[in-house]
Design brief:
Blueprint (H helix, E strand, L loop, with lengths): L15 H17 L3 H4 L25 E5 L5 E3 L2 E3 L1 H14 L4 E6 L5 H13 L4 E3 L11
Parallel strand pairs: 1-4, 4-5
Antiparallel strand pairs: 1-2, 2-3
Helix pairs in contact: 3-4
Length: 143
């Protein structure tokens, strides 16, 4: 007895949902994108801004404090003699006025290194974070 076989249907892919998703993504991205014209939104109105002839920052950055350490241990802060205790008081006061105060320590190359270390310890106690120790290159040395 012969069986009736129906012809096999070819499978097909329905692209309608795929096209819908692509259009929805395109619409979402278009609405979510900021265009270059929107970045100038504060210039939409023609406003003439006020000008000032002598405009300056409200606070000026302080000069770095220069500490000279002589070979005999004498300490000078910006050219004025100081003891280590006075130096610490001055550095704490400067740190209170400006948190990023810098200190430049210039030690005599022939003096004991302990004098420079004492000044570094004072800077540490005053919580000075930016300390510079300049050096001079020897003659004939390559940088």
């Amino acid at each position: 007895m012969p069986f009736k076989t129906e012809p096999m249907e070819e499978p097909f892919i329905n692209l309608t949902p795929l096209v819908d998703i692509v259009f929805n993504l395109l619409l979402f991205l278009m609405l979510a994108t900021r265009f270059a014209a929107d970045e100038d939104s504060e210039q939409k109105f023609d406003v003439q801004l006020a000008t000032a002839a002598n405009a300056r920052p409200l606070t000026a950055l302080p000069d770095e404090m220069i500490v000279h350490v002589a070979a005999n241990g004498k300490v000078l802060l910006n050219g004025k003699p100081r003891t280590l205790r006075e130096l610490e008081v001055d550095l704490v006061k400067a740190k209170k006025n400006y948190a990023d105060q810098t200190v430049l320590i210039r030690g005599d190359g022939q003096g004991p290194y302990q004098n420079v270390v004492d000044v570094l310890a004072v800077c540490d106690r005053a919580k000075i974070n930016v300390v510079s120790l300049p050096v001079k290159l020897k003659a004939g040395a390559h940088p």
